[in-house]
Amino acid sequence: MKSTFSGFSPEAISFLRALKRNNRREWFQPRKAQYEKLIKAPMLELAERLNEEFARFAPDYITPPEKVVYRIYRDTRFSPDKTPYKTHVAAMFPRHTAVKRAGAVFYFHFTEKELLSFGGVYGPDRDELLAYRTLLQESYAEFNKILSDKHVRKMFGGLQGEQLSRMPKGFPVEHRAEALLRASIARRRGTPGLASPKAAESARPFAGAKSQSTKFGTNKVHYLTAGEGSARVKATKC
Fold it and tell me: Does residue 117 sit in helix, strand or coil?
C-alpha cells in the first residue's frame, strides 16, 4: 500500500519545541496522545515512504516502519542528563543481513529545525574499522573513481573533516590512499520543507549518486557516506 505521508505539521514542530522546554514526565504524559498523532504517526508514514524509495535502489534496506522508528524515551541509566525524553524522532534502516544493526545503515533524524538524512557506518569497532581501511587500501583507485562521480560530488562535495596526525598503525606511510586512510570525513544532508510531503525525497540524493547500492572490488563491498558533524566515509561488507 502506498504511503500516505503528508509531511510534519507546524503543530508537530511546535510540540518538539515545547518538549525541549518542558522535558519532564508531568508535562509529557498528559500530551502523549498529541505525540502519537503529531510525531510518531507521521514518522511511521515517512518510514513507509522511504521504503518505497529504497525499493528502487536499495531493496536490502526495506524494513517494516515499526522496526525502524526509535522510541522517544531516553536511556538515562548511565547518563548524567536525566531528562526522560528525546527532543527529536529518528528512524534507522539496517541492511537485512546485519547483526544487531552493525555495518552500514540509513538514518533519518527529525528535529524542530530540520530533517537530517545520513547513510553509512557510525562508530565501528576495531576489527570492523580495520576491514574498512584495508578495503580502501586495496581498492583505492576504484573507490576514488566513485568519489569523483559528478552526482556524488554534487551531493557531498569534496572530502572534509579532521585528519589523523599519522597513518593508522599497520598501514604504509605515503600510500596513495593516505588521504582516505587518515580521514574522518564529514557530510550531512539537511532537508528543508518539514511540513511537506517532499521531505520524503531526502532519500532521492542517495539514489542519484548510487552510493548506497554500488558494489566495488572483488570482496563484494557496499560503500556508503555517513555521519553527523564529523561523520565518516566508510565501506561495509555485504
Answer: strand
CB neighbour list of residue 134: distance below 8 Å, 6 or more residues apart: none
Cα gap 76→85, rounded to integer Å:
9
Give the strands of the sheet with 189-191, arranged side by side: 89-94, 105-110, 115-120, 189-191
What are the Cα distances from residue 89, in Å, to 5, 59, 111, 207, 234?
Answer: 16, 24, 7, 23, 25
- Among 70, 72, 68, 71, smallest CA distance to 50 is for 68
Residue 216, SS3?
strand
Tell me the average pLDDT of the chain.
77
Question: Among residues 72, 75, 65, which one has the least CA distance to residue 89?
Answer: 72
**Per-residue confidence (pLDDT) for residue 138, from 0 to 100:** 86
Return the CA Rg of the chain.
19
Q: Which of 30-34, 125-129, 171-175 has the highest mean pLDDT?
A: 30-34
Tell me, what's the pLDDT at 57? 81
Q: pLDDT tens digits for 145-170?
A: 877 888 777 776 766 677 888 898 88
pLDDT of residue 188: 56
φ and ψ at residue 110, rounded to 5 degrees: -105, 120
Query: What's this model's pTM, rounded to 2 decimal places?
Result: 0.76
Going from N- to C-terminal start, the domains of the chain cover: 10-237
DSSP-assigned states of every residue in 76-104: -TT-S----B-SSEEEEEE-TT-STT-S-
